[in-house]
């Protein structure tokens, strides 16, 4: 089996939170996930995200998935 390729997906959670004047803790409470799990996403260490979590984040931040995630050109 070939080795797993390192992903190049980058999260823009910091920017979106700052633009909306919201803390990571506040978002975690509104979305129903732990601050630790959102921190993993924010720091680009996540390997996956559930569509239900992505939907909830986008709902609370009033954004689209493409506003939250992009692919780096390495």
How would you describe this structure to a colleague?
With 74 residues, the protein is mainly alpha-helical. The protein contains 5 helices and 2 strands, in the order E-H-H-H-H-H-E. It has helices spanning 13-20, 24-31, 35-42, 51-61, 65-68; strands spanning 9-11, 69-71. It has a two-stranded antiparallel ribbon with strand order 1-2. The longest helix has 11 residues, at 51-61. The chain starts with 8 loop residues before the first strand and ends with a strand. The model has no long low-confidence stretch (mean pLDDT 92).
In short:
With 74 residues, the chain is mainly α. It is 53% helix and 8% strand.
Mean model confidence by pLDDT: 92
Q: How much helix is in the residues?
A: 40-55%
Helical segment count: 5
The sequence of SSEs as H and E is EHHHHHE
Q: In terms of structural class, how would the helical and strand content be classed?
A: mainly alpha
Terminus-to-terminus distance: 24 Å
Stretches with pLDDT under 50, minimum 5 residues: none
Tally of strands: 2
Note the main sheet.
2 strands, antiparallel
Residue fraction in strands:
5-15%
Overall 3D geometry? globular
Q: C-alpha Rg, in Å?
A: 13 Å
What is the topology?
Layout: E1 9-11, H1 13-20, H2 24-31, H3 35-42, H4 51-61, H5 65-68, E2 69-71
Antiparallel strand pairs: 1-2
List the keywords.
53% helix; two-stranded antiparallel sheet; mainly alpha; 2 strands; single chain; 5 helices; 74 residues
